[in-house]
Amino acid sequence: MRTYAPKASQIEREWYVVDAEGLVLGRMATEVAKILRGKHKPTFAPYIDGGDHVVVVNADKVVLTGDKAANKMVHRHSGYPGGLRSESYGDLLARRPAEAVRRTVRGMLPHTRLGRAQLRKLKVYAGPHHPHAAQQPQTLQLPHAQAR
């Protein structure tokens, strides 16, 4: 019996909606990254983009546990000497919550062309509304990502 190897033309993608209200950021991001990679499918292959699309709504209501809102820092560099800019996760969540969720999920994907292609399937919105209703997304429940 031969090993099954999926081809890019055979992949069928689904759409999922995750309501981030009250969910812990890191726990939610691991589940979203798993779906974007396609690890929940029996046809998973690490060398092909076989994942599904994920829409995250209510990103402004995500929760950080402990003192991470004040102590955990987000860094970016302009590429110039002295161009390092840092801010706390709490400030980033208050200013740009969709970017905070996107950066967290991005860190859990491969840092290659494949990871960039998988990240393009992630749509994050700060509020409860999204423009992807035509794709008829399924609501995804993440009970173990709830804040305790």
Task: Give an account of the 3D structure.
The N and C termini lie far apart (47 Å). The strands form two sheets. A four-stranded parallel sheet has the order 5-2-1-6, covered by helices on one side. A two-stranded antiparallel ribbon has the order 3-4. Helix 1 packs across helix 4 (97-106) and helix 3 packs across helix 4. By secondary structure, it is an alpha/beta fold. The protein is built from five helices and six strands, in the order βαβαββαααββ. 24% of the residues are buried. 28% of the residues lie in helices and 17% in strands.
Concise account of the structure shown:
This protein is of the alpha/beta class and 148 residues long. The protein has five helices and six strands, in the order βαβαββαααββ. It has helices at 25-37, 68-71, 89-95, 97-106, 113-119; strands spanning 15-19, 53-57, 73-77, 84-88, 122-124, 138-139.
Topology:
Blueprint: E1 15-19, H1 25-37, E2 53-57, H2 68-71, E3 73-77, E4 84-88, H3 89-95, H4 97-106, H5 113-119, E5 122-124, E6 138-139
Parallel strand pairs: 1-2, 1-6, 2-5
Antiparallel strand pairs: 3-4
Number of helices: 5
What fraction of the residues are assigned to beta strands by DSSP?
15-25%
Average predicted confidence as pLDDT: 94
Largest sheet: 4 strands, parallel
Round the Cα radius of gyration to an integer and report it: 17 Å
Low-confidence stretches: none
Beginning-to-end CA distance, first to last residue: 47 Å
